[in-house]
């Protein structure tokens, strides 16, 4: 197995399993751990993985995106804290957009049930979470359903969303960086997110620390478009400060 084949194999394992470890890869590929580390550095330089202590995890791109079923198994305590903290930013908003994805779904779960709310969403999972809330009206955007995320996209969704003026949007991303802003692999998803940004008076980003520094294919917003970023304490405080200099309040929970 030459270098390119080995790196393709490492990337395939990372995408299949959600992460890889240096020691396990060295045993499986029958190479030195330093060789694996060099391979991971090269893959990171190409934007395909992000290295961690002792391994790496895959970066979502135009050719790879994790499914909702996978997302609900990773960093769940952190995502739950983010959801609860983001819901506390509701203020006096009466109309809310909630993005697709597991973390936004946890925001929906944390929203108050004792006051009237109108929630607009493209996510079937979010709509299901809120369907039995007596004081919450749920408007599900129409369109083509993406099986990987169970959310609607395409012009039906964006046209419907364009007709609304929304008090507050909770928006997620596959990647967020100071240089490239917020990105997602699928152009159709990016269009829905971009329209939500245009339709909302206030915008809050919700996402775990692993999203930071990652860059995907389609850019739909800038960091400065948000009033707040809610993430977990895995984002270093120095990096949080750098993002806050672009405008939003950065909340680490």
UniProtKB/TrEMBL annotation:
Keywords noted in UniProt: Repressor, Transcription, Transcription regulation
Name of one Pfam family that matches: DeoRC
Lineage: Bacteria, Bacillati, Actinomycetota, Actinomycetes, Kitasatosporales
Name of protein: Lactose phosphotransferase system repressor
Superkingdom of this protein's organism: Bacteria
Molecular-function annotations in GO: DNA-binding transcription factor activity
The keyword Transcription is annotated on this UniProt entry: yes
InterPro entries: Carb_Metab_HTH_regulators (IPR050313), DeoR-like_C (IPR014036), DeoR_HTH (IPR001034), NagB/RpiA_transferase-like (IPR037171), WH-like_DNA-bd_sf (IPR036388), WH_DNA-bd_sf (IPR036390)
UniProt keyword ATP-binding present: no
Record's function text: Repressor of the lactose catabolism operon. Galactose-6-phosphate is the inducer.
Segments forming domain HTH deoR-type: 3-58
């Amino acid at each position: 197995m030459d270098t390119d084949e080995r790196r393709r194999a490492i990337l395939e394992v990372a995408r299949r399993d959600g992460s890889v470890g240096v020691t396990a890869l060295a045993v499986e590929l029958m190479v030195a751990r330093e060789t694996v580390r060099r391979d991971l550095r090269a893959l990171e330089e190409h934007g395909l993985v992000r290295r961690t202590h002792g391994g790496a995890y895959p970066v979502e791109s135009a050719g790879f995106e994790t499914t909702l079923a996978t997302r609900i198994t990773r960093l769940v305590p952190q995502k739950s804290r983010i959801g609860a903290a983001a819901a506390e930013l509701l203020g006096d908003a009466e109309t809310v957009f909630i993005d697709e994805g597991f973390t936004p779904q946890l925001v929906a779960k944390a929203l108050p049930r004792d006051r009237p709310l109108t929630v607009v969403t493209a996510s079937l999972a979010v709509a299901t979470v809120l369907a039995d809330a007596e004081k919450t009206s749920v408007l599900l955007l129409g369109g083509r359903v993406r099986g990987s995320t169970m959310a609607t996209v395409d012009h039906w969704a964006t046209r419907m969303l364009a007709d609304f003026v929304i008090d507050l949007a909770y928006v997620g991303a596959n990647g967020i960086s100071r240089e490239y802003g917020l990105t997602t692999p699928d152009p159709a998803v990016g269009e829905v997110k971009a329209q939500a940004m245009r339709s909302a008076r206030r915008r809050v980003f919700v996402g775990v620390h692993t999203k930071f520094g990652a860059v995907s294919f389609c850019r739909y917003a800038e960091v400065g478009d948000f009033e707040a970023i809610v993430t977990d304490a895995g984002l270093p405080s120095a990096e949080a400060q750098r993002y806050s200099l672009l405008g939003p309040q950065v909340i680490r929970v």
